[in-house]
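wait is this the right file?? whatever heres the structure
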């Protein structure tokens, strides 16, 4: 298989997508472009109907009038948008337009933030001083909490992990209990310390919530990119190397679907075109 032709074609498809959608990028190699493509896939949310579930903490705030009426209305407004399958990308972080900027909260704890405001300002909404923090999968959206505009170490607040644990949602962000761990030599006790680790591209893989220890399989590389995405790139390169040593398949084409955020490589095998590898978002 002509792997170099495939890499050139994939790179060109991603470049065209970035340019067409006004996304800032800085790729210098095939691996850079794949990394940046997966970064955008992580940040964007595919428009499809999903059920919205409120955390116990958020529901308590609503029930006890700890949130003002306008904010309650906006929470319901975005709940309806998710449940109707509408596009909510304009209300997300502006990082969805920047493939080179790391979103620490999303990359490490898989938590998105949404600006609670209806007004648009071009392709994006106006920025708001209120957020909804949420996690998402193919079927559901889990609203964790409504907060003020966060900055710095506030994004690394342990109370977010406590909300996930209290609602049995940690597995949705790939954080799992580790019963074999009974103690650690050191413990991160402040949000500031956690945030400093993030900014230094240092992973804190094991932490204590309540009386249990948990392991996070997400994290950062020393280059400040997604560890999980880098592992995907390594596996992709292994597959490409194997393909380069074989004459069983011939590269056909690459298809990029910007609506569902999928990048599919097609090859010809025994005279028939088949899907070989698909890289998907969401």
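ok assuming it is, sequence goes like this
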């Amino acid at each position: 298989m002509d792997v170099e032709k495939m890499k050139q074609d994939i790179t060109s498809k991603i470049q065209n997508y970035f340019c067409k959608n006004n996304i800032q990028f800085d790729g210098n190699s095939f691996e850079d472009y794949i990394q940046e493509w997966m970064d955008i896939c992580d940040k964007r949310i595919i428009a499809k109907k999903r059920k919205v579930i409120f955390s116990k903490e958020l529901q308590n705030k609503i029930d006890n009038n700890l949130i003002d009426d306008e904010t309650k209305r906006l929470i319901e407004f975005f709940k309806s948008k998710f449940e109707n399958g509408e596009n909510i990308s304009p209300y997300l972080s502006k990082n969805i337009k920047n493939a080179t900027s790391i979103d620490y909260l999303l990359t490490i704890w898989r938590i998105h933030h949404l600006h609670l405001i209806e007004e648009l300002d071009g392709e994006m909404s106006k920025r708001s001083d209120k957020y909804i923090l949420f996690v998402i999968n193919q079927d559901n959206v889990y609203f964790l909490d409504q907060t003020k505009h966060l900055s710095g170490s506030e994004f690394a607040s342990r109370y977010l992990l406590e909300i996930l644990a209290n609602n049995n949602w940690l597995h949705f962000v790939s954080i799992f209990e580790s019963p074999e761990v009974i103690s650690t030599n050191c413990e991160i006790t402040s949000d500031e310390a956690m945030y400093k680790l993030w900014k230094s591209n240092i992973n804190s893989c094991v932490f204590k919530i309540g009386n249990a220890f948990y392991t996070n399989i997400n994290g950062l590389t020393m280059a400040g990119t997604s560890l999980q995405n880098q592992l995907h790139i390594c596996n992709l390169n292994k597959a490409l190397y194997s393909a380069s040593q074989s004459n069983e398949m011939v590269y056909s084409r690459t298809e990029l679907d910007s609506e569902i955020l999928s990048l599919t490589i097609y090859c010809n095998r025994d005279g028939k075109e088949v899907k070989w590898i698909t890289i998907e978002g969401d």
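DSSP finds eight helices and twelve strands in the chain. so i think its the right one actually
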